What we know:
Layout: E1 2-14, E2 17-19, E3 25-29, H1 30-36, E4 43-48, E5 54-62, E6 69-72, E7 84-94, H2 95-100, E8 104-106
Parallel strand pairs: 1-8, 2-6, 3-5
Antiparallel strand pairs: 1-7, 3-6, 4-5, 4-7
Amino acid sequence: xxxxxxxxxxxxxxxxxxxxxxxxxxxxxxxxxxxxxxxxxxxxxxxxxxxxxxxxxxxxxxxxxxxxxxxxxxxxxxxxxxxxxxxxxxxxxxxxxxxxxxxxxxxxxxxxxxxx
Length: 116
């Protein structure tokens, strides 16, 4: 049996932009993507702390150490600049493997989205 479990989580980052006219996705500082083991094109779930919105999109890398968290395309309507969000990914795995799996969870600084 396979189950879906938490794989990665960027806990509480500040939205730095919303670009309605972009094709779609969320742009994430590549340093945050690497630290949380999220790859380009991976499906991500977004939880907006400010308004309770929950939705899915996919990740694209932004400039390293920029702190960028930009929601693009239709997702831009579900956030405002300076909202605090959580970015989550899940993985399918064998039930027994899931019992010992440890997800990548990071807690960036909410003021500038840095890791330090």
